[in-house]
Structures are given as structure tokens and as C-alpha cells.
């Protein structure tokens, strides 16, 4: 599954849990989400989504509790299928999301196009940083303001929706008809 799709699915869970500060890492197999701001309600929502009975809990030097949850590929696929069923059974058109899920999808598009094989995203209400390693081993990083990420997301949605909004593609060009044949055809038609 492409990063754009996986991150959108994980983002839907994070949106539901109302997380605003987190780190998300991918090692090529699964996604590890850590947050110092995970409330009991947020944790319950995420555990219910991933159906994990235990999370990793660690005390940081400042005394705050840091929790981590793992989204395996199987969990992401299951959540994606559930979301598709929910969207298909809905009679109304879904609203355009401006939440974490759409912004993570935009980051996923970037990671897919950069051919990343592992990455780490640090998310806060003001900025989003992503560090990644490409398939051939080169490392790169980017930091975006949330506003910039929303702008990039809007551009991506526009590119994806443009063909449908503008209607069908232009018709195939008319084949070339030599002038003599055209005149002959129109004279026969006019008789």
C-alpha cells in the first residue's frame, strides 16, 4: 500500500483521537506512533481502532507519560477497508477533510514520489517535520508549516479532481480528408 493511502488511514484514526502532537515512524513494515499528549479517551479510540490490548508506556525524564501504539500493515488494510465500506454505504457525498488525515496523505504523496523506504514524522500544531531515507540510501528532511501543508494538499486535491470537474477529454481529432474527397462528399450530400 502506498504511503499516501496508509498515512491517510492512520490520520483518520489520529483525527478521531484528536491528537495534535505525535511522532510517527515507519521502518518499511509497520507504523509506530508515539505521543506525550495521549489522553485516556484518545488512547481508547486508538486501541479500539487497532484492537491492541497493550501499548508501550514509558516515563520521560520530565515525569510525563509517553505512550506508543503500533499500526501494522494488516491493521492499516483493515481500517482502509472499513473506511471504504463506510463511504460506499453513505448516501451523501463526504465532506473534504482538512484534518490530519488529508495532510498526512499529502506527506505520503511526497514520500512516495521521493521513493522513501523509512521515515519519521514529527507533528505539532504549528509545524510538521519529516525525515526519510530513500531506497538508494540517501537521507533527506523537510519541515512544513501546517498552512503550507494545507496549501500543498489543496493543490493535490485540485490535480486529482480536475479531469472529472472539466468533463470528458476532448474528442479525438477528425481524420484528415483530402480536399478533393471533402468536396466530392459535400456535393453528393447537397444534391
Write a compact overview of the structure shown.
Helix content is 47%, strand content 24%.
Strand order of the largest sheet: 3-4-2-1-5-6-7
Mean pLDDT: 77
The structural domain count equals: 1
Low-confidence stretches: 53-65, 161-176
Shape by Cα distribution: globular
| Total DSSP E strands | 7
Oligomer: single chain
- Rg calc: 24 Å
Structural notes for this entry:
It is a single chain. By secondary structure, the chain is an alpha+beta fold. The protein has one domain (3-168). 47% of the residues lie in helices and 24% in strands. It has 6 helices and 7 strands, in the order αββαββααβββαα. A 7-stranded antiparallel β-sheet has the order 3-4-2-1-5-6-7. A hairpin with a 4-residue loop joins β6 and β7. α1 crosses α2 (40-50). The longest helix has 21 residues, at 146-166. It is globular. Mean pLDDT is 77; it is low at 53-65 and 161-176.
Task: Provide tags for this entry.
single chain; alpha+beta; 6 helices; globular; 191 residues; 24% strand
Protein topology:
Elements: H1 3-17, E1 22-26, E2 30-35, H2 40-50, E3 56-59, E4 65-72, H3 73-89, H4 100-113, E5 116-123, E6 127-134, E7 139-145, H5 146-166, H6 179-190
Antiparallel strand pairs: 1-2, 1-5, 2-4, 3-4, 5-6, 6-7
Helix pairs in contact: 1-2, 1-3, 1-4, 4-5
Amino acid at each position: 500500500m502506498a504511503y499516501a493511502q496508509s498515512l491517510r488511514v492512520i490520520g483518520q484514526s489520529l483525527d478521531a483521537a484528536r491528537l495534535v502532537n505525535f511522532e510517527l515512524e515507519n521502518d518499511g513494515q509497520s507504523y509506530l506512533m508515539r505521543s506525550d499528549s495521549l489522553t485516556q479517551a484518545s488512547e481508547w479510540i486508538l486501541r479500539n481502532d487497532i484492537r491492541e490490548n497493550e501499548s508501550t508506556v514509558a516515563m520521560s525524564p520530565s515525569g510525563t507519560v509517553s505512550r506508543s501504539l503500533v499500526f501494522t500493515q494488516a491493521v492499516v488494510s483493515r481500517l482502509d477497508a472499513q473506511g471504504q465500506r463506510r463511504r460506499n454505504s453513505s448516501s451523501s457525498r463526504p465532506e473534504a477533510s482538512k484534518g490530519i488525515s488529508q495532510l498526512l496523505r499529502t506527506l505520503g504523496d511526497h514520500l512516495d514520489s521521493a521513493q522513501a523506504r523509512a521515515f519519521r514524522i514529527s507533528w505539532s500544531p504549528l509545524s510538521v517535520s519529516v525525515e526519510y531515507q530513500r531506497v538508494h540510501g540517501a537521507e533527506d528532511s523537510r519541515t512544513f508549516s501546517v498552512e503550507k501543508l494545507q496549501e500543498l494538499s489543496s493543490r493535490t486535491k485540485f490535480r486529482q479532481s480536475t479531469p472529472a470537474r472539466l468533463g470528458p477529454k476532448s474528442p479525438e481529432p477528425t481524420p484528415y480528408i483530402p480536399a478533393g474527397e471533402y468536396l466530392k462528399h459535400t456535393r453528393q450530400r447537397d444534391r
